[in-house]
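Hello,

Our lab assistant flagged a job as stuck in the queue for most of the afternoon. It eventually completed. Since we weren't sure the result was trustworthy after the delay, we are filing this so someone can double-check. Below is the sequence as submitted and the structure that was eventually returned. Let us know if re-running is recommended.
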Amino acid sequence: MPERRVVTGRSQEPRRRFAEELRRLRTAKGDSLRQLGERLGWDWSLFGKMEKGETLGGPEVVQALDHYYGTPGLLLALWELARADKTQFREQYRQYMALEAEAVSLWHFAVSVLPGLLQTPGYARELLAAGGLKGAELEKQVEARMGRRELLEGEDAPPFRSIISEAVLRSPLRDMGEWRKQLEYLLAMADRQDVMVHVLPLNVGPHGLMNATVMFLRLFDGRTAAYMENGYRGDLIEETGAIDRLQRAYDAVRDLALAPAESQKFVMRLLEETPCNPST
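-- returned structure --
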């Protein structure tokens, strides 16, 4: 069978195509982002983030856009395809991503970098670039990572707890402006009722999770899975004995960490110490 010819020239990747269609429809309507926000009653910056692929938005805003543009169901269908798409992630993460999307609660320990669910675009871009990504592949992975954040932003978001080593927060981005945005976003997320952030001080000494980042997922059927990773690989763990050992180590680390209120004060102090002007 001959290969199907691309007719429109638009992206065939679900997330990128959704963003393209949003930009195309708004441009054809002749609206600026601010005008669109005023007419639909949402903050215009949300539409900007959607058009840049930083977020998909929620179904209610997509339905409002469908109604406004006179495209009944089209944008919502593209949104559903983009939300369900796992091919945007590298192969070793796809099984984990499928489980993460179904989790009823999540708890996490960060040994070296902030969790993807709490990263800003600037943080993700600098981190992924340091790992060797560049160009279109870099932007694709940044978009994919930003899409993951929607898991915590909906009305039915699962409870999420993250213990972050102080070393992570003592490793700023080169761009101080982007680092301030990251700290501000971390504080905003920590202020949510269903998100708990703990800082693990450096002076607690050795502990059982010093060598790897780990995310636990409580699944709908009552099972718990864990994903452990270092800078070069990740492993999905579902064996009960291994999960139990990791959970005991996690509980011990949580006992050493600062309480959420004290952790927020710690991040606020870091933000106050961070220069306002971007690094050059």
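-- support follow-up --
The delay was a queue issue, not a problem with the job. The result is valid. Confidence is low (pLDDT under 50) at residues 1-5. The two ends are 54 Å apart (CA to CA).
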